[in-house]
Write a structure and sequence with these properties.
With 224 residues, this protein is α/β, with parallel strands linked by helices. It has one domain: Rossmann fold (3-Layer(aba) Sandwich), CATH 3.40.50. Helix content is 36%, strand content 16%. α2 packs parallel to α3 and α3 runs parallel beside α5. The longest helix is centred in the middle third of the chain and has 22 residues. The two termini are 33 Å apart. The model has no long low-confidence stretch (mean pLDDT 97). The structure holds NADP nicotinamide-adenine-dinucleotide phosphate (NAP). The site of NADP nicotinamide-adenine-dinucleotide phosphate has 30 residues, from α1.
């Protein structure tokens, strides 16, 4: 039985990931502020805000109550979109909040789970909008995407690279996975796939990936 820790399991992609990993007989630990509608002996839920200053301690204490020795897959999925998309409506505090949610809190989760990370696949759910390469080459020209979300996902991508290059995590595989455009509360109006399809695709990438790197769940280009 593999142990899978997932953040953002109350809805959207994270809920579907938790549901599918639970159905596959893994031991699943879900984290979100609101409850997750999964009732199963092999699903444990921690109601918590991953941006809270005491979150790391809370996670450590929760993990101690479970009979686990290792976490096989840790998925930093929790995240939402944001708004300000040009210099007249961007709020600097919104950038702080998004970087906290998508990047700093991913690190809080890893810190809380640190003593269980041996040969672990660490997954950060990224977005094409965090890609500096794609932004530089003009893929999003004329599209008014949120400053805060793009900055936060770019910061998260750098976190993934730092983790992948960390000698203390030599046996970890660090995956940045772009889940594709999903029909969720945070998804765009032209989203192509359901959250259920997204979760199937993300799990396939996790199962098959043997090297750290950036991946697209539906096989499209994914760039840092
Ligand atoms: N949808 C897309 O098309 C798309 C595309 C590219 C990347 N992504 C990424 O995929 C991930 C999942 O997105 P989604 O579309 O499934 O979003 P969603 O449906 O809005 O779900 C977001 C999840 O994150 C949790 N969350 C948010 N803030 C939290 C906090 N402070 N503490 C704990 N949990 C928190 C929410 O739970 P609570 O509110 O209950 O806490 C919820 O379970 C995100 O990282 C997003 O950036 C999505």
């Amino acid at each position: 039985m593999n142990v899978i820790l997932i953040t953002g399991t109350s809805k959207g992609l994270g809920y579907q990931l938790a549901k599918q990993f639970t159905q596959k007989e893994n031991l699943v630990i879900g984290i979100s502020r609101t409850a997750t509608e999964i009732q199963a002996k092999n699903f444990h839920h921690l109601s918590a805000d991953i941006t809270a200053i005491d979150f790391t301690q809370k996670l450590k204490a929760f993990l101690k109550t479970l009979s686990i020795v290792n976490i096989d897959v840790l998925i930093n999925n929790a995240g939402t979109g944001s708004f300000g998309n040009n210099i007249s409506n961007i709020e600097p505090d919104e950038v702080l909040q998004q970087v906290d949610l998508h990047c700093v809190s991913a690190l809080r989760v890893i810190a809380g789970a640190r003593s269980y990370l041996k040969n672990t696949k660490i997954v950060n759910i990224t977005s094409r909008l965090g890609s500096i390469t794609q932004t530089l080459r003009g893929d999003f020209k004329g599209r008014d995407f949120s400053y805060a979300y793009r900055i936060a996902k770019a910061a998260q991508n750098m976190l993934s690279l730092c983790l992948a290059n960390d000698s203390e995590l030599a046996n970890a595989v660090v995956l940045s996975i772009n889940p594709g455009l999903l029909q969720t509360d945070s998804g765009s109006s032209d989203a192509e796939h359901t959250a259920e399809q997204g979760a199937i695709a993300v799990i396939t990438v996790i199962d098959n990936a043997i090297e750290s790197g950036i991946y697209h769940a539906f096989g499209q280009e994914a760039l840092y």
